[in-house]
Amino acid sequence: MVRQTAFLVIVLGALAAPQAARAGVKEEARKHYDRAVELVDDGQLEGAIVEFQRSYDLTHHFAVLYNIGQVYVSLARPVEAVDAYERYLADGAERFQRTGAPRWKRKSYRQKARIAILEIHGMPQGAVVRVDGNEIGRAPISAPVRVGVGKHTIAASPKATIRRRKK
After folding, report:
1. Whole-prediction pTM value?
2. Which domain holds residue 68?
3. What is the phi/psi pair of residue 155, to 5°?
4. How far is CA 84 from the centre of its chain?
């Protein structure tokens, strides 16, 4: 009897621990979410993206992706907005099958119209290629690069050479 009681306590403790951990994760995610909302209200959109992303990383709740997409729209970053909206629609697909998602799809389509495709050719083999200061890879860049419609800076710098010291 004592053995069975001890086993039951251990099993119940093992079942309660994950629930307590999940509650702690949800609470932390909520804090990041609330902080993101405050940052949006204060106009600090870059910080809001970080906090929304932290919240999403903890819970993977699809609804947070919508907020991320909205902030990217406000930042005039349509590529990231479309990525967030498409993840939102994919992650919430089961729910949208019941309720439909035409409104959310329209938001994604509207942002897609603000995306241009760059094909980058003629860069020296192995050169580090940057678009608007962000490294996108080494030449040759075989895949098209999505950017927001407008002016962009494309730069290539020679690949780094490693010099060995003489001993």
Report:
1. 0.71
2. 2-113
3. -135, 150
4. 7
